[in-house]
Amino acid sequence: MIAGMLPFIDKLRASMRTRRSRLCLSLDLQIPDTPLPLLEFDEPMLPFARATIAATHDIVAAYQIRPLYFLAEGGSGAIALERLVRLIPKDLPIIVDLRLDGDAPVNLAGRAAFYQCHGDAVTAQPHLRAADLAGLAGFDGGGRGLFAHLDAPTHALEAPWDGYSVSARRPELATAARQRNPHAMALIQETDAVSATALGALSDANALLVVGRSVLYASKYLSFAEDMRAALVRLNTRFPA
Question: pTM of the prediction?
Fold first, then answer.
């Protein structure tokens, strides 16, 4: 493990306590939806990311990054991704949503998630080979987090999984995963709304609500950063730490 680096789950719990938050903001930035005040920039992704982090870093417990949102914009998106991860405070965990499967070279996936994206944890398919899981969990000295991305009922997750990621559109999966893995950390991926059943998986301290567009694009006007922050404050009231 890198000197001074907390294991992922300890870093996450410390952030949740410090910020009194169970929210994770997914930085799913898309240029066509850029708030109007940022359209003066030729390349608005990085200014949008900078404003987002400045407005939210003290009220979210973690950030999620999906690299495809940035790679879709070509060179400018790749540069924005490289720079924005350096803007995130060091004590805030970064979860990289790669959803790795058994065909992904683990050494390349580890470099992409943990070096290029400065990630603390990564998502992978639950059927990933044990050797690949061990390689990811122990990458560069260990301490990395692993989340199983669930899209179908699965068995209980054994070590080294730290938890699972499941869509709020699939409340039956959230319920089944919580029953099989009561102590695992749950990432409930919000869509347009969080279902009543999915809320059951948010009823204890071992869960984060991952929000994205509903917060990032709370408004497109001059007050977009303040509106983004206000949306998070409202969610924090609904899901107190």
Answer: 0.92
Q: Is the pLDDT of residue 169 over 70?
A: yes
221, part of any domain: no
* Percent helix, percent strand, percent coil in the chain, to nearest 5: 40, 15, 40
Q: Find, among 236, 5, 231, the residue nearest to 118 by Cα.
A: 5
Residue 45 CB contacts under 8 Å (≥ 6 apart), including other chains: 29, 31, 34, 70, 73, 76, 77, 80
Residue 167 lies in a domain: yes
| Gap between the Cα atoms of 163 and 27, Å rounded | 20
d(CA 106, CA 140): 12
Task: Kindly state the tokens that stand for 199.
Answer: 């809320």
Phi, psi of 97 (to 5 degrees): -90, 90
Tokens linked to 194? 């969080």
In the chain, count H helices and then E strands.
10, 8
Whole domain around residue 103: which residue ranges? 8-196+205-214
The domain total for the chain is 1
The answer to whether 23 and 235 have CB atoms below 8 angstroms apart is: yes
Over residues 172-176, mean pLDDT: 82
Instruction: Tell whether omega for the bond before 160 is within 30 degrees of 0, i.e. cis.
Output: yes
Of 4-18, 108-122, 198-212, 226-240, least confident by mean pLDDT is 198-212
Paired tokens of 113: 């998630």
Instruction: Write the pLDDT tens digit of every residue in 182-200.
Output: 888 999 998 655 544 555 5
Q: What is the mean pLDDT of residues 137-156?
A: 84
Q: Are 70 and 45 in contact (CB under 8 A)?
A: yes
